[in-house]
Amino acid sequence: AGLKGTHWKGGIFYEDDKGPVIALQTTSVARVDVQFLTQDRIRNAKALAEGFWLYIGVLQGRGVKEIVFNSNSASVVYFFEKRFKFRHLGGNEYSLRIQE
């Protein structure tokens, strides 16, 4: 595991008199905000299931490699983890890799 050397191509490296200290690299991550506009859970779930992969296609076309969202709603988190395979990053943050 870990990041491969190619990940760091084009990154910024800092060093001091003892050598390399830190590397910084900007990644292609999009933070997604989700707002349900109805209280109808079935309708919301159906619309999200139908539109989600179209949305992912748009993001992939823009070069996005990962999407991240925050939620405090157990039912929303469960849906995104089960249906779309999001993974828990910690706290209330969840992630899905959509490209390598």
Descriptive overview:
This protein is of the alpha+beta class. It has 2 helices and 6 strands, in the order βββαβαββ. It has helices spanning 41-61, 74-84, and strands at 12-16, 19-24, 29-31, 66-70, 87-90, 93-97. It has a 4-stranded mixed sheet with strand order 3-4-6-5, with helices on one face. Strands 1-2 form a two-stranded antiparallel ribbon. The longest helix is centred in the middle third of the chain and has 21 residues, at 41-61. The protein is elongated and about 60 Å long. The model has no long low-confidence stretch (mean pLDDT 90).
What are the key terms here?
alpha+beta, 100 residues, four-stranded mixed β-sheet, two-stranded antiparallel ribbon, 2 helices
From the N-terminal CA to the C-terminal CA, the straight-line distance is 14 Å
Topology as a string of helices (H) and strands (E): EEEHEHEE
Content-based structural category:
alpha+beta
User: Which sheet architecture does the biggest sheet show?
Assistant: 4 strands, mixed
Spans of at least 5 consecutive residues whose pLDDT stays below 50 are none
Helical proportion? 25-40%
Strand coverage percent: 25-35%
Radius of gyration, whole Å = 18 Å
Strand order of the largest sheet: 3-4-6-5
Q: Report the oligomer.
A: single chain
Mean pLDDT: 90
What characteristic shape results from the CA principal axes?
A: elongated
Q: What is the count of β-strands?
A: 6
